[in-house]
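Bumping my old thread because nobody answered last time. Still need a sequence for this structure:
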């Protein structure tokens, strides 16, 4: 493969996760069918109910992003390790990245318009927009000719200004600045950036040792209910409660399988060629149908609680896939075989775990949830590899790819750019009118998601990327 080859499938998967995350947060609440929301917070009241089992498409959003995060480690970290960068330097960088993401989680949570005023006013909209602009010197190297110390000074100054803004702002409802008030999704990502990266760095070149960490994490979770045990002490210990809890490490069950997928992708990209077996043109088409069938089928079956039917159908689809890929030849089919086999194994493992802990659910998350969503993430990556890297459909999915290449901007675009601009233009009351109708309420989510994607795509086009 040529040196500048890129796994656009991974960008597309990350972009899909980010944009569906935005969509799930912007559609009308209370009036759409239950499968349009998190399964454990059903309409119309959206009160958390842990006795509800099953998952919806919304429950795949976060694990798909975690999976993509893990899959990126072999490219971002593995490349440096292979190039001779020391493990110590990379461990320090992982800690720094975790610290920056933690700051990001606290910063954006305090600058959301609804945090600043209720109802939102021009002051809140403008502060949110200003906060978005300040994120650029924090998380990107500005395109100015400065000495290295100058770039570092600009970055440090931006972080200092951001911190001063947070502690001096007045917030809605008499709220005061608090380290404990942060965006939980980004905070979990910060923990995964540290622990996932460190595990990968320390086990580099030994992927099964990396996977071998998971039983120990499982053991701590299973043993944490025994009062007086050292395992319980380890589980409860947190020197900085606003930054770390052992409970966050449960998502390693998704990040580490993502690392395995990233290794598969990197190995595929290192091949001398990317030959396509023209004698088996039906294979990619069948795999597209299979992967979509497995994802949609398991969502429907697990949500409707057709557990035995879902298991039987899944097994039949997996058997068909095994037979289809048995005689695979060429670089693509070898990659697809690895992704399909590993994803199928994890999916089946999750379905066998389904009855444990009452049933699959995102909150409080179960082992079935980790394994099923990891397996489906493998299938999604396989789907995007065919669509973006095998077939010439990259342009049709370019909005996903470009949003996935700038995920931090995409994540905050709705709250810190799109909504403030619409608020300043006086259009937010019209958006609220759409919440009275199910179809229009869903359309509102689509429009806001596309506008947010447009913001991310714009900065990707001009190559302004936020990095930690």
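Sorry it took so long. Here it is:
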């Amino acid at each position: 493969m040529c040196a500048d080859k890129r796994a656009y499938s991974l960008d597309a998967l990350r972009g899909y996760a980010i944009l569906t995350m935005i969509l799930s947060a912007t559609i009308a609440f209370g009036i759409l069918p239950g499968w349009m929301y998190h399964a454990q917070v059903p309409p119309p009241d959206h009160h958390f109910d842990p006795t509800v089992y099953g998952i919806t498409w919304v429950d795949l959003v976060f694990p798909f992003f975690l999976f993509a995060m893990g899959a990126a480690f072999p490219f971002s970290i593995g490349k440096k390790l292979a190039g001779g960068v020391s493990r110590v330097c990379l461990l320090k960088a992982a800690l720094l990245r975790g610290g920056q993401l933690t700051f990001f989680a606290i910063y954006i949570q305090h600058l959301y318009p609804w945090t600043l005023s209720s109802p939102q006013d021009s002051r809140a909209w403008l502060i949110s927009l200003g906060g978005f602009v300040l994120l650029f010197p924090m998380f990107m190297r500005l395109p100015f000719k400065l000495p290295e110390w100058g770039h570092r000074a600009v970055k440090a100054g931006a972080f200092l200004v951001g911190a001063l803004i947070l502690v001096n702002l007045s917030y809605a409802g008499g709220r005061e600045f608090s380290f404990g008030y942060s965006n939980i999704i980004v905070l979990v990502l910060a923990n995964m950036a540290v622990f996932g990266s460190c595990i990968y760095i320390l086990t580099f070149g030994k992927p099964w040792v990396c996977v071998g960490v998971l039983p120990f994490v499982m053991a701590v979770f299973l043993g944490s209910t025994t009062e007086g045990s050292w395992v319980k002490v380890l589980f409860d210990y947190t020197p900085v409660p606003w930054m770390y809890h052992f409970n966050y490490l449960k998502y390693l069950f998704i990040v580490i399988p993502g690392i395995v997928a990233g290794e598969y992708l990197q190995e595929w990209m290192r091949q001398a060629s990317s030959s396509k077996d023209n004698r088996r043109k039906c294979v990619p088409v069948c795999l597209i149908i299979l992967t979509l069938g497995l994802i949609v089928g398991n969502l429907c079956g697990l949500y409707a609680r057709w557990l035995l039917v879902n298991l039987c159908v899944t097994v039949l689809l997996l058997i068909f896939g095994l037979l289809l890929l048995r005689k695979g030849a060429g670089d693509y089919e070898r990659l697809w075989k690895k992704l399909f086999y590993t994803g199928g194994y994890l999916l089946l493992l999750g379905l066998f775990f389904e009855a444990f802990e009452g049933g699959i659910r995102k909150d409080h998350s179960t082992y079935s949830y980790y394994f099923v969503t990891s397996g489906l993430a493998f299938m999604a990556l396989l789907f995007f590899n065919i669509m973006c890297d095998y077939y010439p459909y990259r342009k049709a999915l370019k909005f996903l790819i470009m949003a996935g290449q700038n995920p931090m901007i995409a994540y905050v675009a709705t709250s810190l750019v799109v909504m403030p601009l619409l608020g300043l233009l006086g259009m937010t009351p019209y958006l609220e009118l759409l919440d009275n109708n199910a179809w229009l309420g869903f359309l509102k989510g689509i429009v806001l998601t596309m506008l947010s994607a447009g913001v991310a795509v714009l900065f990707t086009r001009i190559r302004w990327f936020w990095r930690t």
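Residues 55 and 396 are 29 Å apart (CA to CA). Let me know if any region looks off to you.
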